[in-house]
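Supplementary Note 3. Input sequence used for the single-chain structure prediction.
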Amino acid sequence: MHRFFLTLSLVIFFIPLLMAQVDSSAMHQTYKLTVEDDVLTLKIKNMEDRKTWSAARSSENVFETIASSSIITDEEIKRSGAISIAEALRLLPGVFVREKTNGNFSVHIGGGENINNDLSNYENTNALLTINGIPFNDTYQGGIFWETVPVAMIDIKQIEVVRTGSSALYGRNALSGVINIVTKMTDTKYLKAHGNFQGGSHQVFSHQANASFAAANKGLFKISAFYNSRDRFQDAYYIAGKNSYISSDSLLFYQPDVERTNSFTHVSMSNFGVDGFGTWQVNSEVNVEAMISNVNSDVQSVLQGLNQLMLSGRKNQSTRVALKSKIYGLNTAISYQKN
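The predicted structure, written as discrete structure tokens, is reproduced below.
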């Protein structure tokens, strides 16, 4: 009887050790990786087909391009809840986005510029904005006023950002990088319409709609319209000389020309735009793309200047026309902009 209990005790003692040794060996075998056979050939799920055009002005895989670049797709923008292009750019690494007033943004790439901390009316002039490869920086100072960008959120296919200097390919405005917005085109010959309407606190509205269709089996067309509006977070304004705040109904007492700055003191940003896109695939060697847009915008921002009020306003009406073509290997691009 004693011998039986001794044998049973030894079995109970050694079984867990044997199982632990087997499990340890199996675990070691399962997670064993080698650099040559495994690490260098790892595949990223659903990322193999991400193509960028902006880095080298030719289509290539975003993970194989020599320039530091990133892409955000329309599906990722939709899931993020961003209702403006600047807000969507916050999702990309190396892009710095500041909101100076409600809906009024300043975007910088790589931190290469001297970004002041006074929230002054300062725009990035070292980054180039392109839409389908066509430059769209403003003609005033070569910067980017995001409220004038003539693209609705529902028209964006993807946004490509190159975080390295690209002046050799794009000119002096691409000193710190390039932001390229790629728009969608219809994939059906039938009439197709889409709308998106959103609203929130502080009178935040973002309304967009488009209609696309095909013609003659060679042309694809789209007409799009958008309206965005946001109110200020507060009614009071800061008076630099008195180091205090006043209500909006007392603005004229401190700055007589404030009515020319912004007629609607509660509005922080509003814009309305209509644009049209078209592409004609004549044959396999001839393709023509066109874009025409008109945008009206009104922005109330902040400015550290000589006036009593820390206030600045921008009203803009811009018309843009762009034409791209590829004819038997010859690529051309022409654009016209009037502000």
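Residues 22-29, 117-121 have pLDDT under 50 and may be disordered. The first strand starts at residue 51 and ends at 52.
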